[in-house]
């Protein structure tokens, strides 16, 4: 992300904008513009869009038909947050939208980024582009930013559609806290997609063939969604002592270790964070002792507290994104670009 | 040097042990069309990439338009239009869109960008295909679009890497004429690389022969041939109806003639090298001896011979230093026929 600043602060851009302030466009903006247009016109994006919109409306339909029972459930401290309920309620036929997004998000990110660099190199457009007076990192950044702009627009319009539809159908006023929570859920989903996007861009720099990079990205995704948890649990079972023979303190200690290892998976980070944000009754992401629970009033957490709980998850996701991006930057900057 | 536009000093690039470009020194002046000639794998593309700052040299400097290409590539790229050997376009975009993109990247003002792109496409002869997707373009059309692409930024220098590759002969002629015309009209400096001798011969003011990473010789065609064939000024090639026996009984008699220096007999073909133009005397000699002459050809030295000569020299010096060696050999055999 820092390179964005760097290129904008570069003297060349300043000079260009000061000498002809109104006529010429900044090359970086031109590139982002072109990438967005390219993405929107592509079949691939149409398919991904259809997939996301379909799941969104599917889960909205399910939650709308069950919203009455969910809101009437007085035992749930968060039952009055109608719009949060819209996003999370389900009767078991379809998972709620955020769970869908947990595995569709990676697909979106991978789909938008897996051939970012290698397809340009294979078709011979990369060298033509690099012969123009543009910085190399601008290309990488424009691929990332343009896909991110598209994803953000998509998610925000879906969420706004959901809020608008909810307002029309139920007529219930939306709480400011709900808006905050829903928007931070959206931002988090974008960060999650951004991670997969930067990972797939990294692979597209690394591998010459688009098919290889796509397969590798999908392999990583499948590993984390299916096998990672299984493997960690298996190893934990084999290595950790039987909980029946150790003190509760030790049990919690080991439990935390396993949880932390599980949190290396980006999908897990996303689920944790999103669940906390969308369900204000969630108070902690780890195990809680009886003493900690004693005296607690079963009430929804304020937004700020929920945000504090998920802050490590958010930082983790953003950090992983930045690491992938920095790595692809490193690989791309010194690389031979002839085909 | 008077207004040198491209100045390479000791430019070297190594890939591991292989020296792709070896101590290249070259000056190209303003308004000149320079041809970089060499077989495939000679390091032409690598040298060009270093001039654009797209590849870092292992040693030496490349200076283009007064800027160091390695340290200041953006400034160089703003002045130089480069067409790669296999030029690629965004297939899903039309010719106009492809061109507009490049123009905008080069900071052409939004107000005039469309007009300029239209004019440029007409100029290179793609006026009818402006809104056609480049995915449907033929090789020659792509090459033309590539030229438009290079020219739209109004460069001072254009570098064309194998510009005639894969175009049909009539297309090549047109294309080269276009380049020459543009260069003369706008005072552009052109550097083009090729392994096609005849084509380069048609347009270049000066050529450099580049083999195995080394620039063997440079100069205009006259200079090159004079340097090379100093001892064989004129060669007469005589074709007879009947093959003659070797050793030829009249060889000695012919050598007695003034100015005749060397005779090579090959079936019904006799090649005679002489220091002066004595073609009429030689023909008379053959007629007197009752030979049936079917053809007399006075040889002029073109780039082909020069090229071949240099390869011969180079081949004897370093036989199998580089995989290019095989290619040179087969190339030689082909041109010797």
UniProtKB/TrEMBL annotation, chain A:
Entry's transmembrane regions: 43-64, 97-118, 139-170, 182-203, 210-231, 309-332
One Pfam family hit: ABC2_membrane_2
Keywords: Membrane, Transmembrane, Transmembrane helix
Residues in the signal sequence: none
GO MF term (any one): ABC-type transporter activity
GO cellular component: plasma membrane
Name of the protein in question: ABC-2 type transport system permease protein
Automatic annotation (TrEMBL), chain B:
Keywords, sorted A to Z: ATP-binding, Nucleotide-binding, Transport
PROSITE patterns noted in UniProt: ABC_TRANSPORTER_2 (PS50893)
Superkingdom in the source lineage: Bacteria
Domain ABC transporter, chain residue ranges per copy: 6-237
Cross-referenced InterPro entries: AAA+_ATPase (IPR003593), ABC_transporter-like_ATP-bd (IPR003439), P-loop_NTPase (IPR027417)
One Gene Ontology molecular-function label: ATP binding
Pfam families listed in its UniProt record: ABC_tran (PF00005)
Similarity field: Belongs to the ABC transporter superfamily.
Protein name, per record: ABC-2 type transport system ATP-binding protein
Organism the protein comes from: Parafilimonas terrae
